[in-house]
Amino acid sequence: MLDKAQREYASHVGEAEDLLAERGIDLQAARSAGLGVVRNPIPQHRQMAGRLAIPYMTRAGVVNFSFRRMGDGPTPKYMKAKGFESNLYGVSSLAKADDWIAVCEGELDALTLHICGIPAIGIPGAKNWKPHWNRIFSDFSRVYVFADGDGAGEELRDRAMHELGASGVYVRIPEGEDVNSLYVQHGPTVLWSGVK
User: Fold this and answer.
1) Is 92 helix (H, G, I), strand (E, B) or coil?
2) DSSP conformational letter for 111
3) Is 126 a residue whose pLDDT tops 80?
């Protein structure tokens, strides 16, 4: 059912072209990541109609979605359907990465790092780190933590660096910025400079 929903939503990704372009994400990259816009929603997603659909995909298929508001408004910027746990975004990077990987806050930041050629996992919100995720990162000699330049980013940085121990490498993001905003302003070079 989630795979079918993803295909339906992906057929409407063109509706999000302006939102994505503002973030330096072209439609080709959006299609590659399976992004879409919620139209003809499955019952669990009815309240998400009109939102950007960000699928959490594995080799087995779609396991979850995050839904982003398309414009300004009174509703939360990001929402998940009721009854779904938090997952890591971009888990295909685990198989593609060599001895290092990046971790950042949010799906669009992880997608931005992917676009730059940096294997990355997105944590769905700074407060959502789960202790059992530590084992996922234990195979990597370095885990670069790209935490947003705000209070929530500091929480993610502190939690991730504590959990990752010696393999954690903090990548400083300026105050008020995140991975995506740096990419839009300066291109991929600024992000690669944090990965040594």
Assistant:
1) helix
2) H
3) no
Model pTM above 0.85: yes
Quick: pLDDT tens for 152-184: 999 999 999 999 988 999 999 999 999 999 999
Would the pLDDT of 8 be above 80?
yes
Closest CA to 66 of 120, 9, 22: 9
Q: Supply 195's token pair.
A: 């990965």
- Give the separation between CA 39 and CA 16, rounded to whole angstroms: 12
State the CB neighbour count (10 A cutoff) for residue 16: 21
Q: Is 134 exposed, middle or buried (0-12, 13-18, 19+ CB in 10 A)?
A: middle
Spatial separation of the C-alpha atoms in residues 79 and 61, rounded to whole Å:
20
